[in-house]
Amino acid sequence: xxxxxxxxxxxxxxxxxxxxxxxxxxxxxxxxxxxxxxxxxxxxxxxxxxxxxxxxxxxxxxxxxxxxxxxxxxxxxxxxxxxxxxxxxxxxxxxxxxxxxxxxxxxxxxxxxxxxxxxxxxxxxxxxxxxxxxxxxxxxxxxxxxxxxxxxxxxxxxxxxxx
Length: 163
Hints:
Layout: H1 2-16, H2 23-37, H3 45-72, H4 77-93, H5 101-120, H6 125-162
Helix pairs in contact: 1-2, 1-6, 2-3, 2-6, 3-4, 3-6, 4-5, 4-6, 5-6
């Protein structure tokens, strides 16, 4: 029964990730709780540490990809930072809107942050818009990457608990 509940939480957590919700961290928490309750096979400390490291790396890469795509689309360093800060602020501001608020906020914040930073750096509207579009592409790539990492983590945790 505990393994079934863990599987349900892992699937629900995986669904949370594209919406900008902390699905990776819920997975890790579920694994810790599952291991602490002693129901079924315990999940090793090494597995929990590795899953935690993967979650941290995925979070860092999420921000790096957004900034990197601003640069790939012709933006400046300032625009890259604008995308990072804007995405964070937007995600936080979107929290009051149920389910999709943080996702919309993160995307809009990345776009607006990069746009404002580029315009502030003296870029023309066309160049600033192109860099801001790069922030959107980067944010989408980051979301896809986090879902892939989340799928890997979910499978890893499930099979670690299965043994």
